[in-house]
Specification:
The structure is a homotrimer of 160-residue chains.
Chain A: H1 3-14, E1 31-34, E2 37-43, E3 46-47, E4 50-51, H2 63-85, E5 91-102, H3 110-125, E6 132-138, E7 147-155
Parallel strand pairs in A: 5-6
Antiparallel strand pairs in A: 1-2, 2-7, 3-4, 5-7
Helix pairs in contact in A: 1-2, 1-3, 2-3
């Protein structure tokens, strides 16, 4: 199965569409490519114009919902890469993923939240999706999002 | 107008001078260049020896003051790049900016804070300043700073 | 003294062994190398299976213990690089280190915590260990760790 098909299947499983425009919410851009290195901006779990999981994980947000939020963030990052590159097949590597979890003061399962995003990235990209990761528990996130995720991807070198 | 002139103008508008030495406060360096990639250390809104905006945004710090703080952080990063490269004209791209906002527990406008820094970077650097961005709300920052910002810049390749 | 010897000496001084396996705790990998750039995943101060410093710095964790934690995180990152490269002599540069400190709401000495890790990295790697750094105070960390650290290293180019 192609990565793009795996992406479509993952969207269906999550119950969300990522076909619409994914805008940056200010004076920045969704991603920047320099050479083969692509930095993707921090993604919150927004679908169309709605942040689908808001609040503090471990208090008003369950671990299960936070994992869903992390997956939506990862799908948005993949959607941006797919549009920029034409196909997810053009991703050579995914060296780093950062996951920020808006946490209750006694919530220490940030890794378990991030792991849902990591599993999705591996499921869609296969071995090229193997990544280093940092996950931390932050105090607040834009739009009261429960999770935010950014990443660095490496594209296949362009033909001369 | 040159980028260096735009930088000087921005400093005047902010009402701060960035002519003094910008030191790293410990066993690290303000920036590291490897090849054409430059990592700039996290900058707090310090002018000379004073952190000019301290406290928690959304509580004792207003959105307006936090945006000012974000701009001071961005100016410090630009000042470091200017000194290292000789001129801001030598910046080819600005792939990633990270903004950390010391936030009150119900403050969710981290993007609006970060956006002031982003606008300044674009105003000074023009299209080369287009960047991916992540902004999060943290619990505390060094020196009780309201905002901290770091970035990755790409320099023009050096002539052989 | 070789860097690998300096690493061994630092482990003895800290009173911990870093000889065991250092696993990633989920669907990610400890580090990813693409070209000469290596991203190391966020390291908590775990020795074998125990996180040796947990809790909020400035409340139940002293500055001194937090600095110890930061050093353990740095040693784990070095241990991963040593295994991947065969020797720490293969590290050409260390452009960026990020330090996340689980902080009490009035604790503002994140730089002082991070500085212990920075000093250790310089002691082991020498001038190649000079790095840009960002340190922030977060609300929670995985496993209730007091500190988390990640970094980007540059390896010597491989012979063709």
């Amino acid at each position: 199965m192609s990565r793009d098909q795996a992406f479509t299947d993952a969207a269906r499983t999550l119950g969300h569409s990522f076909d619409g425009e994914i805008k940056a919410g200010g004076n920045y851009v969704p991603l920047v490519r320099v050479g083969d290195t692509i930095h993707v901006s921090g993604q919150v779990p927004r679908v169309a114009d709605v942040v689908v999981v808001t609040g503090r994980v471990g208090a008003e947000v369950t671990l299960e919902r936070a994992r869903h939020a992390a997956q939506v963030c990862a799908m948005r990052a993949l959607a941006l890469l797919q549009r920029s590159l034409g196909s997810l097949e053009k991703i050579r590597a995914l060296p780093k993923v950062n996951v920020y979890v808006q946490s209750a003061d006694d919530f220490t399962q940030q890794s378990e939240v991030a792991d849902a995003a990591s599993a999705l990235l591996l499921a869609v990209l296969g071995p090229a999706g193997a990544h280093a990761r940092t996950s931390v528990g932050v105090y607040q996130l834009p739009k009261n999002a429960a999770v935010e995720l950014d990443l660095v991807a490496i594209a296949e070198a362009e033909a001369d």
